[in-house]
């Protein structure tokens, strides 16, 4: 064995040990974050604050899952919101029409999402970037049109009416607002932790290689189509989970959940928070929801304010908030001479 081979062989266990430590650290952060969120109802009696966190959980999972495509794989999807809508409608319809326990409906919704995402993804990921973006949008509009036209099943433009049954399971009663809040926080933390593990895994670095140069990745033996399809389906599952949380929150599902504007909000969230840091979409979600709640309360010219914010980030910062903060901190730490 040459000296170079010996160094490479010694570096592998060190890299694996470092990855393992990083995973343990991520789990500890996730547990700490959940603990902080769980005690929040004990510290405040504000229902509005708990509602805000539930909404952040739904849209945070959706936006972060979109960033698995946009930031890590280089696939800009204009139709990712279809899976948010599928999660809401799938879960709501299963609960209304079958009366199965909530965990069964949850798993069944994810299975349905997996099948639909696999079919759509198998078509879309073969296409070049711009065509991928618009074909995903076309599929979203198809699903939205189906929701509007299949009135007997979906309720049409009125959405699912009559509420979503929430039978208690394992001592958890989702009709209780605090229980729903805790369950939403748990799904958020688990979802973010799983997506973090995907992003930091060898598969995640394979996605980065595909993003940077798909032809080179294919040349070194990576099955680019299979990798893109896999992350497309995984991202759909997390987006669907966000839709389930929203369906539970509003006790129903509405066509707006599957409209193209939901995908637009996801892209805007990623632009606000940044796509090069894992928590960028989560920060963007908080910013957008605060912006929505504040501006709509103060003025009717929401579109003008939103346009100014977009211009500020696009022309002023030229990056998301977390991207800007990380870059500023790195430059400050390295010093002006670096």
UniProtKB/TrEMBL annotation:
<keyword id="KW-0812">Transmembrane</keyword>
<keyword id="KW-1003">Cell membrane</keyword>
<feature type="transmembrane region" description="Helical">
    <location>
        <begin position="49"/>
        <end position="70"/>
    </location>
</feature>
<protein>
    <submittedName>
        <fullName>ABC transporter permease</fullName>
    </submittedName>
</protein>
<dbReference type="InterPro" id="IPR043428">
    <property type="entry name" value="LivM-like"/>
</dbReference>
<dbReference type="Pfam" id="PF02653">
    <property type="entry name" value="BPD_transp_2"/>
</dbReference>
<feature type="transmembrane region" description="Helical">
    <location>
        <begin position="231"/>
        <end position="255"/>
    </location>
</feature>
<dbReference type="GO" id="GO:0015658">
    <property type="term" value="F:branched-chain amino acid transmembrane transporter activity"/>
</dbReference>
<dbReference type="InterPro" id="IPR001851">
    <property type="entry name" value="ABC_transp_permease"/>
</dbReference>
<feature type="transmembrane region" description="Helical">
    <location>
        <begin position="267"/>
        <end position="291"/>
    </location>
</feature>
<keyword id="KW-1133">Transmembrane helix</keyword>
<feature type="transmembrane region" description="Helical">
    <location>
        <begin position="24"/>
        <end position="43"/>
    </location>
</feature>
<feature type="transmembrane region" description="Helical">
    <location>
        <begin position="102"/>
        <end position="123"/>
    </location>
</feature>
<feature type="transmembrane region" description="Helical">
    <location>
        <begin position="178"/>
        <end position="199"/>
    </location>
</feature>
<keyword id="KW-0472">Membrane</keyword>
<feature type="transmembrane region" description="Helical">
    <location>
        <begin position="298"/>
        <end position="317"/>
    </location>
</feature>
<dbReference type="GO" id="GO:0005886">
    <property type="term" value="C:plasma membrane"/>
</dbReference>
<feature type="transmembrane region" description="Helical">
    <location>
        <begin position="130"/>
        <end position="151"/>
    </location>
</feature>
């Amino acid at each position: 064995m040459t000296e170079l081979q010996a160094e490479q062989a010694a570096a592998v266990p060190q890299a694996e040990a470092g990855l393992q430590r990083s995973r343990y650290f991520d789990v500890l952060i996730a547990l700490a974050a959940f603990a902080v969120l769980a005690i929040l109802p004990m510290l405040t009696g504000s229902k509005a604050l708990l509602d805000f966190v539930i909404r952040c959980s739904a849209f945070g999972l959706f936006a972060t899952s979109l960033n698995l495509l946009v930031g890590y794989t280089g696939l800009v999807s204009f139709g990712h919101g279809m899976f948010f809508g599928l999660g809401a409608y799938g879960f709501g319809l299963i609960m209304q029409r079958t009366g199965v326990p909530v965990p069964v409906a949850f798993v069944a919704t994810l299975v349905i999402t997996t099948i639909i995402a696999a079919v759509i993804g198998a078509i879309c990921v073969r296409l070049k970037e711009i065509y991928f973006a618009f074909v995903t949008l076309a599929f979203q509009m198809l699903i939205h049109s189906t929701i509007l036209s299949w009135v007997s099943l979906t309720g049409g433009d009125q959405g699912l009416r009559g509420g979503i049954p929430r039978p208690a399971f394992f001592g958890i009663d989702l009709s209780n607002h605090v229980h729903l809040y805790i369950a939403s926080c748990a799904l958020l933390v688990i979802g973010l932790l799983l997506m973090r593990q995907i992003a930091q895994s060898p598969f995640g670095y394979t996605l980065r290689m595909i993003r940077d140069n798909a032809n080179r990745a294919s040349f070194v033996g990576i099955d680019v189509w299979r990798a893109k399809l896999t992350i497309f389906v995984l991202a759909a599952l997390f987006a669907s989970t966000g839709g389930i949380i929203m369906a539970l929150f509003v006790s129903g599902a509405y066509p707006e959940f599957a409209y193209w504007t939901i995908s637009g909000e996801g892209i805007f969230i990623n632009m606000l928070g940044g796509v090069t840091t894992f928590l960028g979409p989560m920060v963007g979600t908080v910013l957008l929801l605060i912006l929505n709640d504040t501006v709509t309360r103060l003025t009717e010219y929401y579109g003008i304010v939103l346009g100014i914010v977009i211009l500020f980030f696009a022309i002023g910062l030229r990056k998301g908030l977390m991207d800007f903060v990380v870059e500023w901190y790195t430059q400050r730490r390295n010093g002006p001479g670096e």
